[in-house]
Structure formats: C-alpha cells, structure tokens
Amino acid sequence: MRIRMKNEKRKSRIRNIAENGISGDDVFDFFNIVLLTIFAIIVFYPMYFVVIASISSPSAVASGQVVLLPKGNNFLGFQRVLRDERLKTGYLNSTIYTVVGVIVNLVMTLPAAYVLSRDDFKLKKPLTIFIIFTMFFGGGMIPNFIVVKQLGLLDKIWALVLPGAISTSKLILARTFFQTTIPDELFDSALIDGCGNFKFFINIVIPISGAIIGILALQYGIEHWNAYGSALLYIYNPKKYPLQLILRDILLRSQITAKQMESEESDALLSVLMQQISESIKYVIVIAACLPIVVVLPLIKKYFAKGIMIGSIKG
Questions:
Q1: Distance of CA 69 to the CA centre of its chain
Q2: 91 shares its domain with 203
Q3: pTM for the predicted model, two decimal places
Q4: Rounded Cα gap, residues 217 and 213, in angstroms
C-alpha cells in the first residue's frame, strides 16, 4: 500500500513538472539531496575504509592501493585480537562501567534539571550561573586526581563514574526539555490533586520524558564506553581494565614486538609478518571499539530528531 502511494506521488510530481516546468522547490530539493548524499559519503567512507583496510595487505594500504575494495587477504590482525583472552574481560568491564555510569548520570542529572526548570525555585538563576561557570573553568587533571585519591576511589569503578556524574551541557539540555515540554498547567492540576514536587516528578514527568532520557543515556553511554584517560589515571589492576585500555595494550605490544624483531635483525619473513600484524591491528581495534556503538545506535535513532529540536531551543 505504501509503495503504491509513493509511486502515485512520484508520478503526480513528474506530471506536474512536465506541465508546469521545474519549480524552485524542486531545485531546492535536488540540491539538498545532492549535498546530503555527499555529506553521507564523507561520513561513511572512513568507517568503510577501516573495515576494508583491516582485511587488506598492509603494503597495499600503505601504498594507497586500497580505496574502494580490499586488496589481498589478511586476517592476521583479527586473529591476534580475537585470540587475546583479555578481550572478553574488556568488553565485560566496559559494559559494567557504561551501565552503572549511565544510571548514576541519569539519577543525578534528571532531578537537578527538573529543579532548575521550575520558575518557583528561588535559587534557579544563581545556581544556573554557578553551573554554567564550571563549563569554562575547571581544576584540571592533577586536582581531580588528588580528590579521587583522597576519597579512596583509586582502582575502583567509582573513580570512572562519580567525577563525571553530571555533565553541564547535558544538564542544560534536560532543563530546556522540561521547560518546553512540561506545562505549568499540568503541575497546577497535579498540585490540586495533592501531588507534590517529588511525586509529580516520579509519576508524571519521568514517564513522559522518554525522549530526553534516551538522548542523555546515548550521550553518556558513548562517553563511558570510549573513556580512556580517566581509566589510564585511576585503574591499576589489569583485571579491571576497560576495553579501550586492553586494545591499547594489544596494539602497543604488537608494535614493540615488531620493532624489537626489526632492530635485532631476526628472521626477515617473521619480522615482516609481525609488522603486518601490527599494521592490521590498528584497524581491527577501531572496529572492536566501535562495533557495540554501531549496533546500539539504530535502536535509538528515533530520539535523534527530537534531540536536535531540543538543542535548538534556548531557555
């Protein structure tokens, strides 16, 4: 039925163009389609290149022969990465850190954003100014490390979760959503029925805020999944390493091994083989790190348009 309707609309549009000529809207749509297609290719091609380069001959990649199709068959990088037993530990740790981190982020961000969205909150303006101030000025890496150490959080999951429990930009995004989506009349009606702020937030605001919850969960989740610097500073036990640190360690070991064989003048074929593995691993670890995000994104893509609209509204 939908296909038939689309075909009828297309035929009707072609008929109108034939009768009335090309309109300004048609020209505008044409250039929009062309520009968006070019933009999509620019965005998609680097990801596609990483995939074909990971299974191509490293010499072909280095010489620029790999452009649209892979050259040669090279799965040494995949074999080296997938054979590492720490990979499962990395995925498990990163999943735990991401899930716990997102829960903490939402629990901290949503109530704070709701409070700042209420016009009857007397400290709304000074607190908002104070929070925005933190976007531009921070203590830096050393003070943050000292705070984490003094709190006894080193080598614990909370060292990766609590320091970034609330993001200022996401707090403002959620506050804007509540201001533009939750009408005062709804709160007044609930207040007449004996509903206080807390009950109103839990029973009414949260159930109708699926869009902003999905957006925040996505943004916070990507940050936790890709967290690298904080884990490098605060996590010392290899069994607690997130995926990013394990992939980094795999890459560094392969590069060191290749350099050692080259400097020690080992067997030429073995040295070349290790260099090929090292080059392939660079692309494989990108795939291993991004694959879960690529799988999850289509499941929550319906929130993207809403997120763009929310972010475009000032408040």
A1: 28
A2: yes
A3: 0.78
A4: 6
